[in-house]
Amino acid sequence: MRSQIPKDPTKAPGAPTTPVGARSEFAKAARAPTGAIAGSAFTPLQDLSGTITPADLHFEVNHGGVPAIDPTRHTLLVHGFVRRPLIFTLADLRRFPQIVRVCAIECAGNGSLAWAGGPFGKPDPGLTPQQVSGMTGNTEWTGVPLRVLLAEAGLSNQAKWMLAEGGDSCLFARSIPVEKAMDDALVAWAQNGEPLRPSQGYPFRLVLPGWEGSTNVKWLRRLELGAQPWMTRWETATYTDPLKDGTARQFSFVMDAKSIITTPAYPETITPGWRQISGLAWSGRGKIARVEVSADAGATWHDAALQGPVLSQAHVRFTTTWRWDGSETTLLSRATDETGYLQPTRTQLIQARGIGTLYHYNPIYGWRVMPNGRVFFRGDT
């Protein structure tokens, strides 16, 4: 407790060693909201530095709660259009040559609060970076390439799709094209150098770099190979994108380029003078090639510095310096990835897909700076 903290720490012995390190009680970063069995907890983007998301602050989305799984009893079944149906234990998976990959995972619904929230469907000015874009995390994953397991099972040429099923109470499942499974898919058992946390899929999960979070099935228990998608409720009733012409996109797997300034941001209050603008950018299509920042509501733009290394399908930290003169303005950021895709404004996204879209929100986000230094979210770009 704070009452036990000495006024001068040089005049008293410190605490002893402990089995597990803890953050300082003065560091208050936490996921939010919490307490829902079927719900989400967002990463506190505004409280983080660099690009790596601590495992215990990585966002989570659960549809049936976080299961308690004994790793000695949990297995992965690979069956269907394969020559040798196989069952893998965690120990079996760890015997294969492992790879380490840094990449981001982002929920398809990331940004929903900033898309249609607030009065009359307009973005609420009282949103933090965590609430605007906190359903993403960027970490180091360790595991075995999925193509190795499929080769071990003898993948049939008839196999075009794969059903990935989780071991939670709702048996969450998504259909995945075999091309992705044989490309860069990973069955991961470690995150940031330690075993997966239960909320991140312990004892192992599927990682599909660049693809919407729901396809990165946690608590992986079954992979069934087949000729066509299974059309589960998770790809019919949910995770589809209604469009303005009355149709809907299905299997819109890849996450588009996005950026967000994490400071200054709501609820900060700033003072005139020089300061750093900092934020994160990422794209499911590859590397971020450029991030531009505007300090005059989009009238002019200039390039921000990208802090290396810039990795494919991963968060990159961008920074720039700015001298605030005390007048009202709006700060904006926009990302361009290596394919040439440019992050759109909210108006452009509505024109292309309509206001009723449920997923894949990636409009340019802004922060309105008031003359008194208070900063508010502005999403009506």
Characterize this entry briefly.
The protein is mainly beta.
Topology:
Blueprint: E1 39-41, E2 60-62, E3 75-80, E4 86-89, H1 90-95, E5 99-106, H2 112-116, H3 129-133, E6 136-145, H4 146-153, E7 161-166, E8 173-177, H5 178-181, E9 186-191, E10 194-195, E11 205-207, E12 220-226, E13 241-242, E14 248-249, E15 258-263, E16 273-282, E17 288-294, E18 302-303, E19 305-307, E20 316-324, E21 329-337, H6 346-353, E22 365-369, E23 375-378
Key descriptive features of the protein:
mainly beta, 23 strands, 32% strand, five-stranded mixed beta sheet, 381 residues, Immunoglobulin-like, Sulfite Oxidase, Chain A, domain 2, single chain, five-stranded antiparallel beta sheet
Structure, explained:
It is a single chain. The chain has 381 residues and is mostly beta strands. It has two domains: 75-248, Sulfite Oxidase, Chain A, domain 2 (Alpha-Beta Complex); 258-378, Immunoglobulin-like (Sandwich). Helices cover 9% and strands 32% of the residues. The chain is built from six helices and 23 strands. The protein has helices at residues 90-95, 112-116, 129-133, 146-153, 178-181, 346-353; strands at residues 39-41, 60-62, 75-80, 86-89, 99-106, 136-145, 161-166, 173-177, 186-191, 194-195, 205-207, 220-226, 241-242, 248-249, 258-263, 273-282, 288-294, 302-303, 305-307, 316-324, 329-337, 365-369, 375-378. The strands form six sheets. Strands 4-3-12-7-8 form a five-stranded mixed β-sheet. Strand 13 and strand 14 form a beta hairpin. The longest helix has 8 residues, at 146-153. The mean pLDDT is 95.
